[in-house]
Amino acid sequence: MFQANNVPIDIFLDSQLKRFIEAKEMTKMKQFNKAVLIGALSALTLATGLVQAQDIKIGLVAALTGQAAQSGEAITRGLTIAIDEINAKGGVLGKKLVLVKRDDESSPPKGVTAARELISNEKVTALFGGIDTPVSLAIVPIANQNKTPFIGAWAAGTNITKNGATPNYVFRVSAQDDLVDIALINYAMNTYKAKKPGLVLINNPWGESNERGLKAAAAAAKIDLAGIEKIELTDVDITPQLGRLKAAGADTLILVANPAPGAQMMKSRASMGWMVPVVSHWGISGGRFDELVGPTAGDVHFVQTYSFFSAPTPVSTKVMAALGKLYGVKSPADVMAPVGTANAYDAMQLLALAIEKAKSTDGDAVRQALEQVESYDGLIKKYKNPFGTPAHEALSPEDYVMVRYDGGKITPVK
Fold first, then answer.
1. Average pLDDT of span 186-210
2. Is the keyword Transport assigned to this protein (predicted)?
3. Which pLDDT value is given to residue 53?
């Protein structure tokens, strides 16, 4: 229970109201003491603030500026639309949900600082995470140590959820690298008849996660890899890496990178005149990839967990209407970084169901309730016990779709 000066809030309010009434009576007797009335009003204002402080705070740590800012904006939109819907229906446990955002600038140290501040100072009930696997991996131990549910809405690193913690406070409504890697290898084989794909991977923990997954997927498919090349965030010429893959006989490129380094790879490919097919993880869709690449951006086919071009449902119709009202979105082609919007929207709805189920905002109670959520008819799919397994993964390869850039818009591959 909230208290004021160690007094329960209901008793505190009654006492201050009594003082206020007594002050008014003094006015009638022309003995009004302005100081008493001002003090009473100040106390009532304080009490009102305490009541408002009972709002349930939800934290977001994501890239809100920089190359991947579109991803942070998309996640923000998905969470905002879901929170508005929930609050319009009376909130959760009779309280309003409030989103509190922090910019990690795609930097693990800044993500750690933001997560600690949201947990310790803002007292958030749960945290949502953004695009970068290295940032999410840095936040995972903080979430587990502080018993604060951490829900990934984009970053796909396998070890984010498979982190070895018991109990595990990390959940995900997004793709998982191991599963995406299988999908990418299969797509390259089925669509481009690939027999010897080459890997181009960002040189960070996310790239390492996919290196393991792609090697395993290629071995399971009984095909050889032409080679594995690493790229850096600051690379401006990736011709040497591509040259080695071309010489090794790569018949397809599988790309795992965020927008800027991914765009540099495509520019180097074009400068070589090597029109080899490119299949990519979804990191390229978190920023201005198509603008940076230019005409060949549409050559890349990449994975998503949802397309707003899918057949309309009551939920998608509602979300599109909200996107139009709040952000001026007129068609599915206008949805910015759609995977962030879709994942975040469903994840927030699932969290709200868990808080209601727990009848509490206590972190451990919410964690247990998330594991027990039975069903939810969401935007991406109809969920059945989405977090019931130790992996805490709500989505599966059956939820993946392949898309491409078409005139600056992300559209399904036909």
1. 96
2. yes
3. 54
Q: Does residue 39 carry a pLDDT above 60?
A: no
* Structural fold of domain 56-175+309-399: Rossmann fold (3.40.50)
Q: Give the DSSP H or E segment for 3.
A: strand 3-4
- Render the burial of 239-276: b for 16+ CB within 10 Å, e for the rest: bebbeebbeeebbbbbbbbbbbbbbbbbbbbeeeeeeb
- The DSSP 8-state label assigned to residue 77 in this structure reads H
CA distance 299 to 28: 82
For residue range 112-167, list pLDDT tens digits in order.
Answer: 999 999 999 999 999 999 989 999 999 999 999 999 999 999 999 999 999 999 99
| First and final C-alpha spacing in the chain | 57
Number of other residues whose CB lies within 10 A of the CB of residue 193: 10
Q: Is the pLDDT of residue 36 over 60?
A: no
CATH of domain 178-304: 3.40.50.2300
306 DSSP 8-state letter: -
Residue 291: CB atoms within 10 Å: 12
Quick one: which H or E segment has residue 365?
A: helix 363-372
Length of the chain: 414
Which tokens sit at 63? Answer: 């890239």
pLDDT beyond 80 at 218: yes
Provide φ and ψ at 266, rounded to 5°.
Answer: -65, -35
> How would you class 94 by CB atoms within 10 Å of its CB: exposed for 0-12, middle for 13-18, buried for 19 or more?
exposed
User: What is the Cα–Cα distance from 327 to 203, expressed in whole angstroms?
Assistant: 35
How is residue 312 annotated by DSSP?
A: P
**Contact criterion met (CB below 8 Å) for 369 and 358:** yes
Strand-pair partners of 57: 98
